Amino acid sequence: MGAPSAEFELRGASAPSVEINRLRRAMSHDPVLEVRTAGLWPASEPRCRATAGHRPAILLSATLHTAIHIPFPPRTGYARPMTQLIFPLAPPTVPIDGETRAFPVRRIYCVGRNYAAHAREMGADPAAEPPFFFMKPADAVVLGNRVPYPPDTDNLHHEVELVIAIGRGGWDVAYEQALDLVYGYAVGVDLTKRDRQNDAKAKGQPWERAKSFEASAPISPIFPAERIGHPKSGAIALAVNGETRQSGDLADLILPVPAIIARISEVWTLAPGDLIFTGTPEGVSRITRGDHITAQVEGVARIDFEMS
Ligand code: MN
Predict the structure, then answer these.
(1) Alpha helices in the chain (DSSP H)
(2) Which of 190, 206, 207 is nearest to 141 (CA)?
(3) Which of 33, 53, 94, 174 is most buried, with most CB under 10 Å away?
(4) Is 206 part of a structural domain of the chain?
């Protein structure tokens, strides 16, 4: 079509700026950036092509100054430019063991009924109903050794879970590539208002009131996979006031870590900052104010807090 264009790779904040400034001088308006990826980013270094007057499937209509700050192109084809905010809003964060910088939280995915024995204790048939997914808001994460007992429940349950911290994004990620997206692992507790969840199940309503309340996701620091590896088996356990309530093994996950990542990425675009609570083994039970909770995943992490 004869419009000026150039190809380059997004390798850092400043690499494409020379190319774009050259294009901007050659054109009467800001160039349109087409971003192509191989499905993984930023590891695969998205290729960008800047042209004028053409709308490809994935594009960023923005000046380079804004475009280079966009960390990845979502599959929806629209990337939000950096812009000024009318009030400050910072993402919730989780500390990383051995690292002064924190892990910013974007989304929290959770897997439902990913251990057969827990599915059965919930009255479900794991052979008939495969695991499924739901979400908590990012600000459900809660750190430290005091977790506030929430309103709106008389039957708060603990669910100890291995947590995956995503460091690279992607969609339609193959099982074989899925672990490339993992930054590290933590242990978390998917706090659940079982009474509200049972109400919702009975009425066919969504689970947010039961699952997605503030401070519903106590979590340990994240341990980088480059140090601890990718756990495939190991004890996962939770005790209340020193008495073991949950005791399982990661080997019993119906969907193991790579399968969870592959399945979620069929439906949603995974991105750096996402956390995935991978499901809980059997033994969930009621906790109340003053209870002391210890939870751990062998070879990963441990968490210790009081409901207050
Ligand atoms: Mn859970």
Answers:
(1) 17-26, 64-67, 116-121, 194-203, 208-211, 225-228, 257-267
(2) 190
(3) 33
(4) yes
Question: Residue holding tokens 């042209």?
Answer: 51
> Residue 18 is which amino acid?
V
**Tell me, what DSSP letter sits at residue 222?**
B
Ligand 1 centroid to 45 CA: how many Å? 34
State in Å: Cα 111 to ligand 1 middle.
Answer: 6
The domain in which residue 31 lies consists of: 6-67
- Global pTM reads 0.79
Using the mean position of ligand 1's atoms as its centre, give its distance from the Cα of residue 116 in Å.
Answer: 13
Same domain? For 172 and 126 the reply is: yes
Same domain, yes or no, for 176 and 259? yes
Which CATH number belongs to the domain containing residue 170 in this structure? Answer: 3.90.850.10
Domains identified in the chain, total number = 2
What secondary structure letter does DSSP report for 89?
-
Same domain (yes/no): 37, 109: no
